[in-house]
Design goal:
By secondary structure, the chain is α/β, with parallel strands linked by helices. It is built from eight helices and 18 strands. The strands form four sheets. Strands 1, 2, 10, 11, 12, 13, 16, 17 and 18 form a nine-stranded mixed β-sheet that branches. A five-stranded mixed β-sheet has the order 3-4-5-6-7, with no helix packed on it. A hairpin with a 2-residue loop joins strand 8 and strand 9. Helix 3 runs parallel beside helix 4. The two termini are 26 Å apart. The N terminus is likely disordered.
């Protein structure tokens, strides 16, 4: 009981669901029938969305204006794209002044998770208001938009992802945004192996971002299973923290865990430090009728100092 009281006194915890509404270059126009209609810059895309179990609000004629659609047949694990107009398979959009590379490939994912924008802005705010010479580690970093937000505000970023294509898209976005002079290390590696190597090297970081998948493979065939590997992985990550860390963000997709469970796990691990935890869902609100789509869960710890 004494240990529990000590943890409670050092780390405050609150729930905070974050809803995003889009920005100039992105809109969630409508959703329904397990699909969503989105605008990314000049193009309208239809993508599979399992959470959209209602009927669409917009008419069929509006949906038929889409430039491409990604379909997933019932029971299938992999879908396919159908192109409905002559569009580029690679293009760019702007996100708060950053020019970001997008790409249509075999996956329904195109290089950006729009529901993350408030996390990116939060990272930018925390880095920008800190008086520390920040070293930030971004694990399972995908195409690196969070890394660019952090580096633009002055952080020295180490960005790790197992996908070489994702890393190349991140580098392209850095170039398009005229940020190649900033200190970002782009590393293709298995996140768990990289963290273990950094611990052996004695490296330290002030902040860590991570977006671990439910299941994944590293570039060397390494297997990642969220439910089996997360706790051990977090322990290795926390060993990389400086004595006065600034923040940690964990975002999780496709998991049955509640955000409260993830937040409790992080809270217990962070008990040596004084800080506060926010946790909840990342939610997108569609433009047509204001329906909300739960996209992910997140937990973020920030220092009180």
């Amino acid at each position: 009981m004494k240990n529990k009281q000590s943890i409670n006194s050092r780390i405050n915890q609150k729930i905070n669901h974050i809803t995003t509404f889009g920005w100039k270059d992105y809109e969630l126009l409508d959703s329904g029938n397990k699909k969503k209609l989105e605008r990314f810059g000049p193009y309208h895309l239809i993508r599979f969305e399992p959470e959209a179990v209602w009927k669409p609000t917009l008419s069929n004629s509006e949906w038929e204006k889409a430039d491409a659609k990604y379909s997933l047949e019932k029971g299938a694990n992999v879908g396919s794209w159908t192109f409905l107009s002559d569009i580029e398979h690679e293009w760019t959009i702007f996100v708060d002044g950053l020019q970001t590379q997008l790409s249509i490939s075999a996956s329904r994912h195109i290089g950006i998770f729009p529901e993350q924008i408030e996390n990116w802005r939060w990272i930018s705010e925390q880095v920008g208001s800190s008086n520390k010479d920040l070293k930030l580690l971004n694990l399972f970093g995908y195409t690196g938009i969070a890394s660019l937000f952090a580096a633009k505000k002055g952080a020295h970023v180490t960005h790790v992802d197992a996908s070489r294509k994702a890393i190349e898209m991140g580098k392209k976005s850095s170039s398009l945004s005229h940020l190649t002079h900033l200190p970002i290390r782009w590393i293709v590696d298995d996140a768990f192996k990289f963290v273990q190597k950094e611990n052996r090297r004695g490296k330290k970081y002030n902040a860590i971002i991570m977006d671990p998948p439910q299941f994944g493979r590293g570039p060397g065939g390494e297997i990642w299973k969220f439910d089996e590997d997360l706790l051990d992985f977090l322990n290795h990550c926390l060993a990389l923290l400086t004595e006065d860390p600034l923040f940690i963000i964990i975002t999780v997709y496709n998991t049955k865990n509640s955000p409260k469970i993830i937040s409790k796990t992080l809270r217990n691990l962070m008990h040596p430090f004084s800080g506060k935890i926010e946790y909840g869902k990342l939610v997108q609100q569609e433009k047509s009728s204001g329906k909300n789509i739960d996209q992910a869960i997140y937990t973020r710890w920030i220092s009180n100092s």
